[in-house]
Amino acid sequence: MDRDDRTLAEGQQVPSQEGPAYNAVLAEQCGADSSLDDGAGAKLSDPTKAYPKPPFERQSQPWPGLACRMNPRPDHGETSYKGSGRLAGRKALITGGDSGMGRAAAIAFAREGADVAINYYPTEEEDAAEVIALIQADGRLGAPLPGDLRDEAFRTALVQRAVEALGGLDILVCNAGRQQSHASILDISTEDFDATMKTNIYAPFWIIRAALPHLKPGSAIVATTSEQAYDPTPDLYDYAQTKAATMNYVKSLSKQLASKGIRVNGVAPGPIWTPLQVSGGATMEKLETFGGQTPFGRPGQPAELASIYVQLAAADASYATGQIYGASGGAGQP
Known about the structure:
Blueprint: H1 20-30, E1 35-37, E2 43-45, E3 91-95, H2 100-111, E4 115-120, H3 125-137, E5 142-146, H4 152-166, E6 171-174, H5 190-211, E7 220-224, H6 237-257, E8 263-269, H7 275-281, H8 284-288, H9 306-313, E9 324-327
Parallel strand pairs: 3-4, 3-6, 4-5, 6-7, 7-8, 8-9
Antiparallel strand pairs: 1-2
Helix pairs in contact: 2-3, 2-9, 4-5, 5-6
C-alpha cells in the first residue's frame, strides 16, 4: 500500500478499533458495575472487571499474527487514551509498532504530541495501516517502515529511514519480539533459536548502535522486556533468556549513556493479550486460561501499559534511568 493511501481524507473519521466481538465480551464479562463513582464526579474503574477474563476461545494465526483478527480484539487505547502534550515536538521510532505494547505506545505518543515512525513485519500491514491512520488523525506525522529485523542490512537502514522521515530522532522504543512455545528444548530447532535471538537480541543491538549518533542529551531509549526475565516458564526457554538479556542491557547501557544525558529504561509486562499468544507463543490450553493465574484473574491489555512508555519517554522522568517498570497484574515482579 502506498503511504499516501493511509492518509485520511479531510474530515474522515477513524473507525472504532473495537470490534463487535470485543464489545460483546466486554459487556458480558465486565458488567455495568465496572465503573464506579467516587462521589466527586470522577469515574473509577475496577481493574478486576475492566477487561475480558478467561476462558478464551481457541484460536491460531500464522506468525507473527494480527491484532485485528483476534477475538476478543486487544485494546491499545484507540478510543480511550487522552494526551496532554507531554511529548510535544518529540520524534519516536518504535519497533513492533503495529500491535501490542508498541501499538499502544505509538497511539499514546502521537496523542502526547510526538511524530512517530513504526517498524513492523511486512505481513502485519493490515494492523500497521490502522496505527498510521490513528497517528495522522491526531495531526502528527506517522511513518510506516516495514521490514524484517532479522536482516542486518535492514536493521541498520531502519534508523536512517526514520530520521529522514521524522526530521530527527529522540525516542527509541525497542519493542519487537518473537515468542514461540516449545514443551522441550529438544523441540527447538537451530533455525527457531536463531530467529528468536536475531529478533530479540541482535535487532536492538544494531538499532541502538545506529541510533546513538542521532540521540541528543534528553533523548530516551525504552526496551520491552518481560516478567519472563524474572520468572521464566518452562515452555519459553529461548524467549525467556532473551528477555533476561534485555533487562541486563537496559541496566548496562543506562550506565554507559548517563554521561551523555540519554536515559535507558525497560518495561516488563506480564501476560498481555497480544498476537504473540495466538501465533505460536502459547499452547491452546494455555490460551484458554491466559492471565487467569494473576491476582486480577485476567490478562492485561496493551492500553494499560501505554502510560508507562509515555512516562519513561517524557522529560519529567529525567531522574529515571536503568529502571525496569513492571505491569503484571499483581505478580509482584520486578
